[in-house]
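Justification of computing resources. Each target in the renewal requires a structure prediction run like the one illustrated here; the chain below, 302 residues long, is used simply to show the kind of job we budget for.
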Amino acid sequence: MHHPIDPKVDCVFKALLGAESNRDLLIHFLNAVLGADLPRPIVAVAIQNPYNEKEFLDDKLTVVDVKASDATGQQFQVEIQLLNHRDLPARILYGWADLYSAQIKEGESYRKLRPTYAIWLLGETLLPDDPNYAHDFRLRDQCGRVFLDHGGIWLLELSKFAADEVETEEQRWLKFFNEAERLDEDALPAWMQTKEMRRAMNTLKTFSEKEHAYHAYQARQNYLREQQSIQLEFDDLRAEVEQAWAAVEQERAVAVQERAAAEQARATVEQERAAKEEALAENERLKRLLADKAEPSGSGTR
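Resulting structure tokens:
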């Protein structure tokens, strides 16, 4: 391979799993990730938005996910996301819901709806409190009962996957996405010695050796680097704003405390003044009472 190629770059990713010539790779990938949750293995799919090299060459392609369906009408979406952002979970859920609801048109029966599976490979950790790299989200209640078995969302966090030994086909794919850029195609490790992995490496080789494909790859990499830089700058600015806002809130809290302390002091002074005035009034009353008792009676001798 003349140039190292990262399979996580979007144009390469879609060529791997979204090209008509690699349909068998997509079927293998879907079975590797979803196999245990499917009623039966997938044997054929129709790719709804196949990879188009020319669209990538002029850098106008913005939809880089892979959408497919099988003979039973089940819907599949595969997408890679290298950078996290605050609204990513909402975007993931919206993508699933949009694909699910698009199956029927106005006036058509809900019975036409088929299970829909969304698979997202994530370059950054999205769920830091969970050590597992694989997650599936479906409609369940708190007891685990499934409301409707119509697919769901599968998240694969590449940043958490670090297995040395491959035990499943899912792990083989994840290891490929994490390490393929560093592999020597002439000396592939044992875990890469399958027909699917060799074909995947041939796809990377195409990007490496075809000049126009490699330029497209470089353009996408540069774009992703720019996006990452923008995201980092945005995160820094947001952190500065949040820090400044926290300082303002702290100052406001201090001001509120000082105001409350001043009000309390004022109330204490008022209470003390009222107590003194009440004591003085009581003292005056007692003085008048003593004076009245000390006066001689009004009856005298004539």
